[in-house]
Amino acid sequence: MTSLAYELGRDLTIAEVLPVVERHLRDVLENAALAPRAVEPPRAAAPASA
Q1: Is 12 a member of any domain?
Q2: Could you point out which of 5, 27, 30, 42 has its C-alpha 20 to 30 Å from the C-alpha of 21?
Q3: What is the number of domains present in the chain?
Q4: Whole-number Å distance between alpha carbons of 46 and 2
Q5: Domain for residue 19, yes or no?
């Protein structure tokens, strides 16, 4: 996995990427199913047998 800065060969600022992130986040949230859903806690791993 690489960073955007590495891929572009230059540094990026938050101000530069924020509009893009906001637009995509808005698209996702506007199209999300907003119905409540159950959230289950993570299960503990079973102990390994010796």
Answers
A1: yes
A2: 42
A3: 1
A4: 34
A5: yes
